[in-house]
Design goal:
homodimer, Jelly Rolls, Arc Repressor Mutant, subunit A, 2 domains, 4-stranded antiparallel sheet, 8 helices, DNA-binding
Chain lengths: ~230, ~230
DNA sequence: CCGCAAATTTGCGCCAAAGCAACGTTTTGA
DNA sequence: TCAAAACGTTGCTTTGGCGCAAATTTGCGG
């Protein structure tokens, strides 16, 4: 039996990007940032946009999703406070590969490509940190691709909830509550299934006491049970 | 209708990693490399191994695959001559996230983590090049995840062949021949389907004149037709 | 607090593709 | 050169989960 894959990703925060940077470096970084307030539901950038910048969520939450030419949506990732997004575009063709939409009222900071490249050239550690962050995300996408190809819809939803719990969960008396407000469609689009299947499975779990769901705020009541669903072969 | 995603990835060669490096930089890089000959079928590293190094295929071809705890296999990528692999592990937890297996007799060069980090710190452009390469791969995995979630098995196989043609295709009178020798299982595992489905679809295409298949060497005879299969909504 | 719009639930039919088994073909290595 | 093993094909059966429609609940603006 092969080695089990590492649970991995941790929170990929902007703090990691500037890890090891001196006070003066941070000052230079802060000076070149642009800050914005984004209301719930508003798009921050759109797939194909060309003026790519590097973004960080200061407060709130963002959905990163791709929309196929047939209208099918897939959520690549949810971004919580402190995490980077939109950064990969800077290093490829400068076109954002996905949409970014605020799913709660959000504040985000961003940097121009030139400013970030300048920082990286002067402080190589920042560039190395960036590889590390992108590397984790690549590993996560590889794991998700494996799951899409080999696991059932139920297992994928379970795994998605476990990831979201690690990423943005808060411990409460009832269990781990996922802070981001998620609709059934969001759950479906990040698990690679349909609204209907996601609804059926979640109501089933709610009845079985695995999760509870109040006003789009999911709580994982039985973490071990959920893990078992995700891992059953 | 949303902007169509860029076809993207190009060949991600080691040349890109050292793009812009001076002759002296290259000399330092070459001096610290380790070279190995790997016979067809032999594993180069294994998922979970800890002594991660940065690898380049000098000649031959390599299959990067993950094996789930239930034995299910997924191919993440095939690596052709000139391309990097195994590099992401250096920047995450130093454990290879997948297996690497030679699928033809292969020569591979590799660097220790310390040597590569040293190079990157001294020549930040190399670090920036590395982000670019990993960024392209992340985008490619995101596209593949979207396809796994939203497209049919037939469309995914078509897309996989198109990618392989771009990556390792050679023009011949009969069309574009994919140089890597691929078994039905390889095709299935990179498209997220089964051996049986892959076989059925490929024999169908062979009958229709879209592809020909001689001794595990696939040739795309009708590129436009294949593209149409991949894109039909 | 009301009423409308959006989100969710649920029953049901259906199909793409997985799983299985049996058989043909190619490759390998001794 | 030949046999065994690996690989590929194909018919049949089974099923997870998609898609639609209709009913129900929730959330929001006024």
């Amino acid at each position: 039996m092969p080695t089990e894959l590492s649970a991995s990703p941790q929170s990929l925060s902007s703090a990691d990007l500037f890890a090891g940077a001196s006070a003066s470096t941070l000052k230079i970084a802060a000076a070149s940032a642009r800050w914005r307030r984004v209301p719930n539901g508003k798009r921050i950038f759109r797939q194909g946009d060309e003026d790519a910048r590097a973004h960080v969520v200061v407060a709130g939450g963002v959905r990163i999703s791709q929309t196929g030419s047939d209208g099918a949506q897939v959520v690549m990732r949810f971004i919580c406070a402190g995490e980077m997004f939109g950064t990969v575009a800077l290093f490829t063709d400068r076109k954002y590969p996905a949409d970014a939409t605020a799913i709660v009222d959000t504040i985000e900071a961003s940097w121009r490509e030139a400013d970030l490249l300048d920082l990286m050239t002067r402080f190589p550690q920042i560039a190395i940190n960036a590889i590390r962050i992108v590397g984790w995300r690549l590993q996560e996408m590889q794991n998700r691709a494996r799951e899409l190809a080999t696991r059932s819809a139920e297992q994928r939803i379970a795994q998605a909830l476990i990831r979201l719990g690690q990423q943005s969960g808060r411990s409460t008396p009832a269990g781990t509550t996922i802070l981001l407000p998620l609709r059934r469609k969001d759950i479906a689009d990040i698990s690679g299934t349909t609204l209907f299947t996601a609804s059926r499975i979640l109501t089933g779990w709610a009845r079985a006491g695995l999760v509870t769901d109040q006003r789009r705020r999911l709580t994982i009541a039985d973490h071990a049970g959920l893990q078992q669903v995700a891992e059953q072969s």
